[in-house]
């Protein structure tokens, strides 16, 4: 059966756009999730260091523009909408706008590449919840998980190769992804995909260079086990083993948002500095034309195969 999509929806996490947004944003993210208050206060400070503005919304505007350009360049006349889970434009408001515009069946490209609850299933729930709020809402199919696709992997390969070519001989690669609770549904699938993508990038960019997959941005109570090791602990382990230079590759993310800018560029970089280690972080796909094209490729394939996430 052939699905005819009449819109593309860019679905993302959302982030604050000023100091007054920070607390309500954090409350939206953590409602009912048992995140300790001290952790919330600490994360609020991360945002305030950047004037209360997360980079993620502008990155979504830029990605939306890149996708629109790619569609136009391929003579595909399709409106692109943007909605978030945790901040304006809220997904339900976007779905309301799509409904008013007469959209009947949209494909959703999510700013998260992997399987797993936080990375896939929760976005599927977001879509269902938003549609339930809006009478006459269009059908919305989440496009499939795309972590293995060249549009996502190749920008990391190129960036890793470039970073290594400027690095000293005994540099190690450190792949990072967002930690999640060990008890999180589909955590095994998330980890298996991360291991596969890390191995692919290492293999293509730097055969023979030692690498590890580690985690960042843990947030639950200490009593709850999350994926480990943490990136900062790993830097210490490498240091103790005599390693003096790392290239960090945040394969768990699609853009250089706050988890990258604070937890890696600020926190992990400071840790490396304290240890006397050289620390370089490579960029995420962001608005790389190959990544923008991936939205069109997935939509076109879903249209011809009827496939969905
Ligand atoms: C797997 C994963 C991704 C990658 C997939 C994806 O990209 O979607 C991701 C992305 C992001 N996480 C982000 C921000 C936050 N995540 C939090 C909390 C949590 N994240 C979790 C997991 C993930 N998170 C989990 C299991 C929690 C615990 C609460 C819960 O079970 O939901 C908290 C609460 C405070 C804290 O404890 O850190 C904040 C502020 C931002 C925005 C950055 C910006 O503003 O630029 C982005 C893109
Ligand atoms: Fe998060």
TrEMBL record:
| Alphabetical list of Pfam families matching this protein | Ferrochelatase (PF00762)
**Main localization, broad class:** cytoplasm
This enzyme catalyses: Fe-coproporphyrin III + 2 H(+) = coproporphyrin III + Fe(2+)
Question: Its Enzyme Commission number?
Answer: 4.99.1.9
Summarize where Fe(2+) binds, as residue positions: 178, 259
Q: Where in the cell is it found?
A: Cytoplasm
InterPro entries named in the record: Ferrochelatase, Ferrochelatase_C, Ferrochelatase_N
Annotated pathway, please?
A: Porphyrin-containing compound metabolism; protoheme biosynthesis
Q: Which Gene3D superfamilies match?
A: 3.40.50.1400
Q: Which UniProt keywords apply?
A: Cytoplasm, Heme biosynthesis, Iron, Lyase, Metal-binding, Porphyrin biosynthesis
Binding-site positions, Fe-coproporphyrin III: 54, 123
Keyword hit for Magnesium: no
Q: What family does this belong to?
A: Belongs to the ferrochelatase family.
Job of this protein: Involved in coproporphyrin-dependent heme b biosynthesis. Catalyzes the insertion of ferrous iron into coproporphyrin III to form Fe-coproporphyrin III.
What's this protein's name? Coproporphyrin III ferrochelatase
- Please tell me the species this chain comes from: Actinomadura fulvescens
């Amino acid at each position: 059966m052939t699905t005819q999509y009449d819109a593309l929806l860019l679905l993302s996490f959302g982030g604050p756009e000023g100091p007054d947004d920070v607390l309500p944003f954090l409350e939206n993210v953590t409602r009912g999730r048992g995140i300790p208050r001290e952790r919330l206060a600490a994360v609020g400070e991360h945002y305030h260091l950047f004037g209360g503005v997360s980079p993620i919304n502008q990155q979504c505007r830029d990605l939306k523009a890149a996708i629109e350009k790619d569609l136009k360049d391929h003579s595909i006349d399709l409106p692109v909408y943007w909605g978030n889970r945790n901040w304006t434009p809220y997904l339900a408001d976007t779905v309301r706008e799509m409904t008013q515009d007469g959209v009947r069946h949209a494909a959703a490209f999510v700013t998260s590449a992997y399987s797993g609850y936080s990375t896939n299933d929760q976005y599927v729930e977001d879509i269902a919840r938003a549609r339930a709020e809006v009478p006459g809402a269009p059908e919305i199919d989440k496009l499939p998980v795309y972590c293995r696709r060249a549009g996502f992997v190749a920008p990391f390969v190129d960036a890793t190769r470039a970073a290594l070519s400027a690095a000293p001989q005994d540099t190690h690669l450190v792949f990072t992804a967002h930690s999640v609770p060990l008890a999180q549904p589909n955590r095994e699938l998330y980890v298996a995909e991360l291991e596969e993508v890390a191995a692919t990038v290492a293999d293509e960019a730097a055969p023979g260079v030692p690498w590890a997959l580690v985690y960042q941005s843990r947030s639950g109570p200490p009593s709850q086990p999350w994926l480990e090791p943490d990136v900062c602990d790993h830097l210490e382990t490498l240091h103790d083993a005599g390693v003096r230079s790392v290239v960090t590759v945040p394969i768990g993310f699609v853009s250089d948002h706050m988890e990258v800018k604070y937890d890696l560029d600020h926190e992990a970089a400071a840790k490396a500095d304290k240890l006397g280690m050289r620390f370089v972080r490579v960029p995420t796909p962001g608005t790389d034309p190959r990544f923008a094209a991936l939205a069109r490729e997935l939509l076109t394939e879903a249209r011809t195969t009827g496939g969905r996430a």
